[in-house]
Amino acid sequence: MSPAQIVILCTFIAIFILAVPLLILPAMRCGPGGSIRVTFFWQGFRLLLGIVHRARYFGLEHVPQTNADVPLVVVSNHTGGIDPLLIQCGVRFKIHWLMAADYMAGPLGWFWRLLEIIPVERTGRDTGPAREAIRRVREGKAVGVFPEGGIVRPPGEIRAFIPGAGLIVARTGAPVLLVWIHGTPEAETTFGSLFRSSNARVHFLGLFDFHGETDARVISDTLRRKIAEASGWPLNDTPVATARKNANAEHALP
Fold it and tell me: Could you write out the DSSP letters of every residue in 27-52?
């Protein structure tokens, strides 16, 4: 190889080494919060959900197309432990989920901490999580709530909503991104359902504004009814067992 060819080859290698990061880095900043670390795992879970769960998304025109923080309350029915992952992988902004604290200690605890999850104790005596959720929305962040208060069994019905989601909306005036999920595997934990195949479907039903409405129960009931209408599922007014305790703390807020 002549000296000129060596120079050309070295130049090509140098350009390649410099160009690849410049091409990859923008793509690695397209996920939640523009964080390379979060986007890396976000992209990985998106691939896994697409392969194992054949996840499909509908109503994406209702979803803010940004990876910046959004002052928003995300409200969804609860079909399984995989639900928060499914929804998070369908949007580019970070959702700060309200989640049972014992889930944080599981195999995916590191990922929930990465997403700055708001832990909720199942005792129902602590109003701190609701206050923290309200604070984060007021700071311009998105907070996610499963107002049924637990995984619904049997599936295919909408259980009673605790007023937490309505409370956050009433106190902040933030719009609601309403979600209906179905087709997920029947497993109690996220990790348990992660590798169990399914035909998961996530429907973003719309953005709803409740400006001027201060009654948390009215807001919660309206959202519940809209999910029931979209799904065609019956309403079951019996609360999920884990929801009864959580409702006590929410009613204690001044």
Answer: HHTSSGGG-HHHHHHHHHHHHHHHHH
- How far apart CA 96 and CA 188 sit, in angstroms, is 21
pTM as predicted: 0.84
User: Regarding beta strands 118-120 and 235-236, do their DSSP bridges make them parallel or antiparallel, or are they unpaired?
Assistant: unpaired
Residue-wise pLDDT tens digits, 116-147: 889 887 665 667 889 999 999 999 999 999 99
* Contact (Cβ atoms closer than 8 angstroms) between residue 99 and residue 77: no
Instruction: Tell me the backbone φ, ψ of residue 204, rounded to 5 degrees.
Output: -85, 110
DSSP label at 133? H
Domain ranges of the chain: 31-251
Angle of helix 164-172 versus helix 241-251 axis, rounded to 10: 30
| Three-class secondary structure of residue 118 per DSSP | strand
Please give the distance of CA 52 from its chain centroid, rounded to a whole number.
19
